[in-house]
What does this fold into?
Amino acid sequence: MADQVKIAVQAGTALQAEMPVQAETALQAEMPVQAGTALQVEMPVQAENRIDLKFKNLKELGKKAFIAFITAGDPSLAKTEEFALVLEESGVDILELGIPFSDPVAEGPVIQAASERALNAGTKIDSVFETVKKIRAKSEMPILFMMYANCIYVYGKERFFANCAKTGVDGVIVPDLPLEEQWEIKDLAQSNGVHNILLAAPTSDERIEKIASQANGFLYCVSSSGVTGTRSSFSTDFEKFSSEIKKHCAVPAAVGFGVSSPEQARELGKYFDGVIIGSAFVKIIEKYADNSARYLKEFAEGIRKVL
Amino acid sequence: MTRFGDFGGQYIPETLMNAVIELENAYEKYKNDPEFIRELTDLYRNYAGRPSRLYYAENMTKNLNGAKVYLKREDLNHTGSHKINNVLGQALLAKKMGKTRLIAETGAGQHGVATATAAAFFKMDCEIFMGEEDMRRQALNVYRMRLLGSKVTPVTTGTATLKDAVSQALREWTNECATTHYLIGSVMGPHPFPTIVRDFQKIIGEETKRQLKEAENKLPYAVFACVGGGSNAMGMFYDFIGNESVKLYGAEAAGRGVNTAEHAATLTKGSEGIFHGMKSYFLQDEDGQIAPVYSISAGLDYPGIGPEHAYLHKTKRGIYLPVTDGEAVDAFEYLAKQEGIICAIESAHAVALALKEVPKMPKDEAVVICLSGRGDKDVAEIEIYNEKRGGK
It folds into this structure.
């Protein structure tokens, strides 16, 4: 059904589908129809979210999702567009774009520094939406925003999610909106066809059930306590953590925080449906700046091989 | 109740949620526990030196020719400020929770010193996060913390001041919440912190009410306190919120003026937002990026304010007005010369606001200014400030 829906995405309009309704549908009986007019009902129908399609697709192929994080605007938005397309070519399934924030409390030093570089380069929320539009012109890869609640709140929640729908942002991860505060965005995200991705941590314990049962898109599983950043080893019992999650979670589960090598990706990939890599990519950009593309490609291809 | 009207809440990463839930459960368990109350009351009395004096400032009263002026002498507490009230309460709670380590942010160093003191007393490990810029401005307090056995870790990110120290302490707590209690220094952060800190500070207002009744047999016409995060102000205000005749004045740091970019006057110039775990008012741009702020006072140099103050402001129960560096320094000198009391530059903001308002207030009324801390730490900085502004 979804592929029969013709999606007209126009600048300035919310995502809308035009559905041709046939004369013999039941719908007709309840509506006064004038002879000679074509019956057409316009109703907002959401096309299937690109994240859901991607996971479905990967499942059929027997592969794990490879999710890559970079900070939008680091070192510039033109480069973000280039890096996004390079990452897709190199086997990345889903792109997680960090919207830079002045005070990212859930981040370790690597992503903090990237945020600062992006802000110093003049990155604004509107300019990131422009970049998403440019990527969308060339790619259907699912795009997520990773951002702090204040940016959405002050930008304007309605305006923000309308722009997500308009430009083709498929999900948002807001680390400072735990389950208790998801009410801030839940309905607006949903009505605009955007997944609000929830996080679960090994320390979530009895909260895992509550979180996992409400997850949509995928569940972001935090590998270990602490902030983002590469780790040389993990103390989490992933067998236990992932089985606890799978008991309650109807959507795929992806693991992130600290994954930085093909070996770690392969190991964690055993327990989850996808692996998220952030700081390791950001470190490459920190080092090579404008010239990062080929190093990103090399690293991404190494990860892809094991997932 | 995690909120004050729209404000407050728990805007923190999932990795911290169980830590704040654990804290809330422990607080609910102990706050009415007779043994906990007995221990804390004993610490307040015999270690911190409570009740603090309510002092009738006769010279100031004559000079201002308005309402009678009383000073609530939190500066005479052990460690030199109101911060000890909250620190003893939270450290005792952390001890009961089985935590072995305290971490805290500090701006002026008063909260850091108080936390280091409690850690020494309770035999706990302690690490204080302090902006590099503030460590320079408050070198004496850095030495005091180290003397007390604490590690002082400079924070170099962002503006290297109080907000960055809070962010770093939150990150550290995320890493180590099993063993560590984050002893937050003001009525801010995620629930339950704004409530816990206010409850441990409300003794300021409760004592004031009792003491002024003894002295004048009436409620104050107004109370004055400085507001950064807002803990001494919340402590002073809380017991008077229900007494609607009592005007609650909060003095915000206006730095070089609220029409410059260099101030920290959150309620005067800020807007609603979500930061450091709470919904409140913040100084920020149109994308929600937190603004760099400035004040001569390292303790008021914060781009946000506690959520209960946001609520008192929005409902117009509290009156929050800006005070510039220059006005605060003038008040600092005024109080020294009039009353022989050298108060903290933070507290001098409250004094400055009182200097403007008290002459307009009826003579048969009494007002109370919260002197939240002592000013030894500020003398050197103020000397430099005065040299720069030219021979005073």
